[in-house]
């Protein structure tokens, strides 16, 4: 497999061999169930669909219940399709099989983490875009330290250009963080210790790719 679905447990730090304090994230990766195997003959491309996280049957749409029963598993919360899985797994992944983190990753691997960033709500330009603010209270200004300042031109073009960085909803976006190193694998608990930070809040779903 080229990846797996997991859940962010939280952040901690460990000491490396040279004595540096390394910030890291603990992720519960899998076990995931193969709910669909696609191939060129029937679907036009090769892919494996994985499912993770338990879901109540009463809260699951009936078409999805049938989809999971075909794979011989209970309803799942998160379903992700991995298209570019490794060649050695081609033709060896069966419907209903269980994929564990220790089967996909080893210590020292570099992975990409995909998640939904924390939502910050409606924020101003200083927090959202890193503006420095208008500055000192000169020219008769009052309580404008964190305001955006001028946003338009003069009589031409007599409008505000599209794409101008202004206040608005911040966070809640799909974010991909590249080249995070796996520091430790705990196969008995399906846990991965990954260097650096991973997008999302605690208990949020994360997609890990090689």
Automatic annotation (TrEMBL):
Keywords: Ribonucleoprotein, Ribosomal protein, RNA-binding, rRNA-binding. Signal peptide: none annotated. The keyword Repeat does not apply. GO terms for cellular component: ribosome. It holds the Pfam family Ribosomal_L3. One of the primary rRNA binding proteins, it binds directly near the 3'-end of the 23S rRNA, where it nucleates assembly of the 50S subunit. Belongs to the universal ribosomal protein uL3 family. Part of the 50S ribosomal subunit. Forms a cluster with proteins L14 and L19. This is Large ribosomal subunit protein uL3. It comes from Algoriphagus limi.
